[in-house]
Each structure stands twice: as structure tokens, then as C-alpha cells.
Amino acid sequence: MRRIPAFTASVIALAIAGHAHAQAAQEGTTPANGQDGAAAGTAQSTAGSPAEAPDQAGDATAADDGSEIVVTGIRASLARAAEIKRTAAQVVDSIVAQDIGKFPDPTTAAALQRVPGVQVTVGGNNEIQNPLIRGLGDILTTLDGREIFTADGRTFAFQDLPAEAIARLDVYKSNTANLIEGGVAGTIDLRLNKPFNYTEPTIAISGKLNYPSNVEKLGPQVSFLATDRWDTSIGEIGALLNVSWYDIPFNRPYNYVAERRAGSGSSEGILLPISTGGLNEYGRYQRPQANGSIQWQATPSLEIYIDGLYSAYRSKFSTGFYEYRLGTAESVSNIVRSDNCFTANVGPDGFNPNATTDPTQITQQQLCGFNSATFNNLEAFSSTQAHNNRTDTWLAAGGFRFDRDRLKANVDVSYERSIVNNENFIVDIGKRVPEATLALVNDDQTATVTAPGNPMADARGLTFINALFQDYVRSSGGLFAVKGDATYETDTILKTIELGARYADRSARFQQVQLGVAPPGGSFATPITAIDLPLERAAGIPQINNGAPFLLPSRDYLLSDSGQATIRDFFGAPDGQPAFDPTREFNVGENSYAGYVQAGYEVPFGSGPVVLDGKLGVRYTRTDRDITGTGVVSGSPVTTTSSNSDTDWLPNASARLQLGGGLQLRATYARTIARPSFASLNPGLNYIVSTNPNIRNSGSGGNPDLRPQKSDSFDATFEYYWNDGYFAIAGYYRDISDRVVDGVTAEEIDGIVYNISRPRNVGSAKLKGIEVSAQTFFSFLPGDLAGFGAFGNFTLADSKIGGDDPLAGYTLQGVSKYNFNAGLLYDRNGISARVVYTYRSKYFDEDRSGAGDVRPVGTETWLNYVRPNGRLDFSVGYDINKNVTLTVEGSNILRSRYRSYIDQDFLWRDTRTDDSLYAVGVRTRF
């Protein structure tokens, strides 16, 4: 095999040695890896991806004697990330794989939480998900520079792409014209491995056993990568194949106290929750993934490539509810009132009045919370939501890169198809129980529920209640895109002239059916023995009866063909899966056209180290969209098609002042946009009458007149780099117009009141903040102590909604004001170790202003707040030899939990017990 200089590893060696210059490609040739060896911000990487700093942690570098040195581990990974940050044309933070198949964290989203200014949440299956950049979720995701998404959405579910597949991840917090538009918050570019990243035939195999402590079962995961390069008569050809597979068990218990209403009778004057209980989300999920790439160096100047990706998600799991309906109690006794009281307006139903409430029926009452109370002879129920969820995403792409003399160009053609199929089959069972006591006083700010004898673990007396409820969703999306970029270098102050264009044809379709059928005779009339309904014993919820198990319908039975046929027949529901409801469907066709021009400049000041460089550019974008949705008006379906066009000019300017000695200053400006989600634009209106008396009738509607969000974004940084690390301070300011938020209002439709959720533009929002980040190794220490290092970052995000919106003056939803990471490192003598603590302060995640909770008189805004929390993770790796590494990992080892309250600190709501995950693994490389 022809040996090709390994530019990437050379940069690692230079970074560790303290030099701060990226290797330049030889004139007239394409670098060995089209992503390597180029200055950040040029159009040379795969698919014209924007960041061109050195890549691939596992490359080899040529030593003085011509031999190859494999550079891996935490130190090399952090050095590479620092070099990318230093040389990029934008404000960028990166994460680089420590080795083939070894990202610093177990998942892609988990790794993102280490980036300054990025905040995440925990999903129902205990996976980290939903990253926010500086508090905003309007993120464009690209894969090797190509836009990628999940199903009918604009965003990508990061958990769908396993970390083992990722070579590098770049978080762009500022914009340049060559970046695809669509992210007000920023852009996250995921990089896969490519065959020309490797100079030798390579096979890498890894395996891991995961142990989630909530479920106490093992979950395997494996990955395999093989790559090689061959000299042929038509040029050098490289091929790479990477596959991975997960099978992870999970269990995430929730405990909740529902919205409060005014008590009556024995509970008069009390803030009475309508119910309390919990749920378990438990089951297993699988994530198969395969990606491959072929690169052909047809001539010294021309490279042709083909890339492909398949990723999938499979999960059969239960959402097992367990609830006590406090509002159905015959009496309430042993009430211990608290001192937390307020005066509230109360409607005739005991809830907060809404626009449909007769003003003459509104009273003012003094209401107080309670520390504990016993509810007597009340209804209790359990429910199995039996889920069978599947996601499939395919992406195929090809193109060429040309690099000769001063001209660099690339053309990329791609097609993505993503489909989600979700099945949810729900059966509720219940009975009356003698009593349940709810306690709302402990240092943990978590409710506890006690029912003597644990009656819901006894099958006697259980009946069918509420309804058989079926919910089927199929959503899909497609994208055909063509993108071209070119860069011409000059010998003047104007160093580069960059041009590019992109065409994208996007489609999306959403289909759903929801069907509820009451049990024979109504709730609590028919015993479950009528069809010998199989039951299973769910794992307990820690706050309910001290975690004792409870009974609920069998998930496997509810998902089986025979079980569904039996239950449908018994409830009188139509046979088979119900057809999709045309009133719950939308179809989208969207064409986007974009072009840009950008110049890179460089102004040296004398012969010294002081240099000013940067980018000036503008991007033009036009979007034509047709969206068709069907809603119900006066009982009849009405189909509406909305057509819109948006045109925007997006300027950008940046300047970097290099002062020498590793010190540099940076300032950037850019205008960015984020288009509304297709679901938010859906002109249809959907609503449903609740079969659960404790849940209000609800619905949702889109808003086809939503405008794209726009942001004028300003960033400034101070950066200092040295041999073993860097220190950086960044300030940012975002002036956002037409921010989209969802709100709930009460609407009367055909004489029935529904809580309808709709999106709206809120006018303006301001977001400003400071990020401080640093990393270093203590190489000055003697002996093995020189392997120690540390890293950390802190973000202050100060956000505020403006205009005349009801939320004016409040922070943006989901934004924590404070966020930090702090970690210790060790990398020496074959040992790589890391321990890191991540913290975020409180934030609100739901606007309940339109909900029925009673509240103090004059309080219009009513928010659900999440309390501060932090997570501690660790990983240790030991190289047995140059080919085999053993690893031990732990995530959330302090068992951090989600805890929330409704506007007032004493109105406790949810506690979600996040899992602690431990893993042992082995990686081999040959």
C-alpha cells in the first residue's frame, strides 16, 4: 500500500509540543483525508463541511525515522479539540474520539453536555437527549456537512447515532456563510470515520456490558470497524465499514402530584391534588447501525467518494401507571395544614377559571397546602401503555473534491429517508381502595404515598376502567440535496474567495389515529376475569409504598396479535389496527434555495506574530413551502393547504487577532434563522374527549402563519493556548425575533371545553451570557504525576422574553442560568481516566398558564420549574498492550434525579429517578 503522510497525527504532535500551526496540504494534491490538513472554514471536507481543522484521533504520524506512531487517549483527544477551536473561522467547541469506537462518553448526546454552553435532558429510557446550545433548542444537525433529521421533524435525535460511529463532533456557536442555514442556536456537525483517515489496514472490535442499576440486568453492545486502502491502476481506493449494535434494558420510575384544585367538604380550604401516583417506563431498546465509505483518488487533484448510513431504533417497552384518584375520595381525614396559603379565584368545578367560565360562578377562596392527609375510600388504578416503537434512517451520498493549485471545490449529492412507526396499546384497570396517605414534607422535596396492605398488588376486585385506547403514529421525512462549494486562494490580503450554492427538496408526512372505546358497562363495572386478562408485576416506585411492586396488564399480551384481537372484541372496538385518521395528518413539500459569497482575509502587522484574519460573507436563502392538514370544524373534516415563501439575507463577519505566544482575540457577527417545525405549521386542529375523569379534554393545533425565528448574533472571545491546554472566555449576545413558544388556552368547540395547545411567535427575546473554559495537563509534575490533568467550563446564560407576550420578562423555556462541568484527568503509562461533574441550575420546562391549577389572585403566568441538579460520571481505560484496552465506566453514579414544582416552591410535582449506569468493556485494534 502506498504510504501517505498522516497530517492529522502530525498536528497532534505539534499541539502537544506547543506549536500552534496546522499542517498544510501539499500543493496540487488532495490531503490523505479530505477533512484534514486544511485551515478551518474552507470548503474542502466531506460534503463541503465547514470545519477543516485536523481530524481523527487514531491517525499515525511519521516519526523522524519514517516509522509510524499511533496517537490515542484523552490527552491527544483534548489536544486535537483545542487545535480545532484555535484555528476555526467560527466560535467552535469540539469533541474528538479517543480511539476508534471510543468517544469520551457512552452516547453522542451525553458527550455534548461537556461542551461549554450545552445543556441536556434525560429521556424516559434514561438516555441523554435534547441538547440545547446556550439555552436554545433550534439546532441544525449535519452529518459530515449534510443536513440530517429524524422523520417529520427538523431536528435529529442524537441518541439514534451511537457514539461508537463518531470520529468527531463540532458545535458551531457562530455562523459563516458556508454553513447551511436553519439553526438559530447553532450547528452540530457529526463526523464519521473515513478510509483515507488511516494509513494502514485496520480492524477494530469493541464490546461492552452495561449494568443499569434501576433494572439490575445486563445489556450488551458491540461495534466493528474495518478499513483498508489499495493502489490500483486507476488510482488509490479506500473502503471502510463500521457496524454497531446495542441492546440496553431500562427502568425509570416517576412519582408525581397532579395539579391542585380547591377542596370541598372535609377538605374545604385545602389545595387538593386531583391525583397522585407514579409510573415506570421499563423495557429494552436496540440500536443497530451501519455506515460505510469508499474514497477514490482518481488523480492527484480529484477525489471521488460514496458514503452511506443506516441507523435504527427498536423498543418494546411499558409505561406502567399507578395512580390514586384523590378527588374521588369519600372523605379526607388527618389533614395537617401547612403555612403555605394564598387567595385564589375558583370556578364552579374547583379549578382556575378560564375564558369560558361564567363570571357569576367565580368565588375567591383562601387555600392552604398540607403536610399530610389521608384520603378514604378512593379509586385507584394501574395502566399499561404497551409500546412498540421503531425508527429507521437511511442516508446515501456521493460527490467529488477537487484540489489543484489555488482552487479547491467540491460537489455533494445526498438523499435521506427517515421513518418512525410508534404503536401504543393501552388498557387501564382499577378498584376502590380503603385509604391512601399523601405526605408532602421531607428534606428531599419529594412526595410519598402509603396505602396499607399495598392493595394494587392484589388482583382481587380489579375491573376495567376508562377505555381501551389505541394510538398509532407513522411519521416520515425525505430530503434530496445538492451542494457545491469552491474556494480560490490569492496572494493578497484577500486570502480566499469562496462561493457556494445548495438546493434542498424536503418532504414530510405525519399520520396518526387515536381511538378510545369504553369497557362494557363503563368503568368499574366488569372484572378483568371476564377475559382472564394476564397481569404482570411491575417494579415498584420508590416513593409509593416504599417501592413495593404493583399489578398491571401484561405488556407482551397487549402487543400480541391474539391479545389485541381478544381485547378489541371484548371492548367492541373494530378488528385490527384502526386506519389512520385523516384529521390527524399533515403533508409537507418544501424547496430551499441558497447561495453564498464569502471572502477570507489576512492582514499581517509587520514581520512579527501579530496577524488579523477572518471572514466576510453573506448567504441568500429562499424557502417555498406547501403544507396540507385536516381539522374538524363543526363535526366535519376540513382540509386546508397553506403556501408560504420566505426570503432572507444572512450576513456574517468575523475577525481573529493573533497576538503571538498562543494569545488571540476573536469577534463575530452573524444573522441566523430557524424555520418552524412542520408540526407547528400544520393548519389542522385535533382534539379528543378524555376518557379519564382526572384529565381535561385537550387538543393541539398548528399555526401556518408562524414566521421563521431570526437572530442577530454577536460573539467575542479571549483565548490563550499553551503546550498542554488552553484558557478561553467568551461573551455572547442574541437578539431573537419571532421566537416560537407553545401555549395552552381553553376553547369551546361544539359545546365542549378543550385545553388547546398552539404555537405562537412571541415577538422578541434576548439571550446573553458568558462562557469560561479551560483544560490542561500538569506535565511539569515529576514522574507519573505528570499524567494528571483537569478541565472545566462555566456558562452564565441570561435570557429574557420581550414584547407584549404573556411570558414577557421571563427566561426562555428550558434555559438554566448557570451550568458548569468540572473534571479530573489522567493519561500516562497505558492508563486513561476521567471523572467529571456536570451541573445545571433551575429552569422551567412547561408553561401551565392555561391549565386548570388554582393559583394566587392576579397570577397570569404559571410555570413548571425543574430544580437544580448535577451528575457525576467516570471512565477508566487500561491498555493491556498496543492492541487491547479494558475499560470501566460509570454514569450518574450519585443518582441525580429530576425534581420539579409548579410555580410555587411548595407545590411539588414530579420526581424522576434517573438510572446509574455501569459498564465494563474491551477494545481491540489490529
What does this structure look like?
The chain has 926 residues and is mainly beta. The protein contains 6 helices and 46 strands. It is globular and about 85 Å long. The relative contact order is 0.12. The model is unreliable at 1-71 (pLDDT under 50).
Give the topology, please:
Elements (H helix, E strand, L loop, with lengths): L6 H11 L42 E3 L5 E3 L3 H14 L4 E5 L11 H5 L5 E5 L5 E6 L5 E5 L2 E2 L18 E7 L13 E7 L9 E11 L6 E14 L2 E23 L2 E3 L8 E3 L2 E11 L2 E11 L2 E24 L5 E16 L16 E42 L2 E33 L8 E3 L12 E27 L4 E24 L17 E4 L11 E4 L1 H5 L1 H11 L13 E20 L6 E23 L2 E25 L2 E12 L3 H4 L3 E4 L9 E4 L7 E14 L2 E13 L2 E10 L2 E10 L2 E14 L10 E14 L16 E11 L2 E10 L2 E5 L15 E4 L2 E11 L4 E8 L5 E6 L5 E6 L3 E9 L1
Parallel strand pairs: 6-9, 31-35
Antiparallel strand pairs: 1-2, 3-8, 4-5, 6-7, 8-9, 10-11, 10-46, 11-12, 12-15, 12-16, 12-45, 13-14, 15-17, 16-17, 17-19, 18-19, 19-20, 20-21, 20-22, 22-23, 23-26, 24-25, 26-27, 27-28, 28-29, 29-32, 30-31, 32-33, 33-36, 34-35, 36-37, 37-38, 38-39, 39-42, 40-41, 41-44, 42-43, 43-46, 44-45
Helix pairs in contact: 1-2
Please give the number of β-strands. Answer: 46
User: What ranges have pLDDT less than 50 throughout 5 or more consecutive residues?
Assistant: 1-71
Instruction: Tell me the major beta sheet.
Output: 29 strands, antiparallel
Total of helices: 6
* Rounded average pLDDT: 87
- Which overall shape is indicated by the principal axes computed on the Cα atoms? globular
| Rg of Cα set | 29 Å
Percent strand: over 45%
Structural class: mainly beta
Distance between the termini: 16 Å
User: Share of helix among residues?
Assistant: under 10%
